[in-house]
Amino acid sequence: xxxxxxxxxxxxxxxxxxxxxxxxxxxxxxxxxxxxxxxxxxxxxxxxxxxxxxxxxxxxxxxxxxxxxxxxxxxxxxxxxxxxxxxxxxxxxxxxxxxxxxxxxxxxxxxxxxxxxxxxxxxxxxxxxxxxxxxxxxxxxxxxxxxxxxxxxxxxxxxxxxxxxxxxxxxxxxxxxxxxxxxxxxxxxxxxxxxxxxxxxxxxxxxxxxxxxxxxxxxxxxxxxxxxxxxxxxxxxxxxxxxxxxxxx
Length: 249
Description:
By secondary structure, the chain is α+β, with helices and mostly antiparallel strands. The protein has helices at 3-22, 29-36, 40-52, 68-77, 82-98, 140-146, 151-161, 167-180, 222-227, 229-239, and strands spanning 56-58, 64-66, 101-108, 111-118, 133-135, 183-186, 193-201, 207-216. A hairpin with a 5-residue loop joins strand 1 and strand 2. The chain has 10 helices and 8 strands. The chain has 2 domains: 3-66, Winged helix-like DNA-binding domain superfamily/Winged helix DNA-binding domain (Arc Repressor Mutant, subunit A, Orthogonal Bundle), CATH 1.10.10; 69-247, Beta-Lactamase (2-Layer Sandwich). The longest helix is centred in the N-terminal third of the chain and has 20 residues, at 3-22.
């Protein structure tokens, strides 16, 4: 491959990522090929590589949307974006009131991505690693989002997760999340940590994000976390106006 050919291939891949990122819903192969002026086989080969590298992912509909690797990279610069600058004081308030780490998570496919965090001042604390991903079906930050997805979408996600998890138990947990307004987890993704999370909902009731407060289980017990639920929900409500529906992917 010549330098020019390599450059053209890279540019096409970047344009495909941009086209998918600009859409509020998954984009099909034929539409992307037409938009880019590419043959369907050429577009498919590029998309397959981007999917293998997790820059894009396939939706249940078969279309493409942004993947976890792209979200992880974006998380490195998101804290400088206006919406995250405005969200940071809320996380700071939650961290101050609880004494624990407060984090903001966005959905990327079947995972929740940590995009903003304010860490506890304690020496022993939950570290907020930007770009870290956890399954939506496991842990409080993901379940707070999953519990409020449309039923068909949530069902499809649980079907995909059924190879690795007891989905009947997850269904019960999600029912409790909807009834309580928050998700609670103890060591689900991080042994020794307890977390509580609530959704940030759009005006239409779609989950745009979740906010979690978590810390060492010896200090941030399940009882303490539950007592904090109303404060967490109140602060999540304040964030709702910051997030456009397009972020709820």
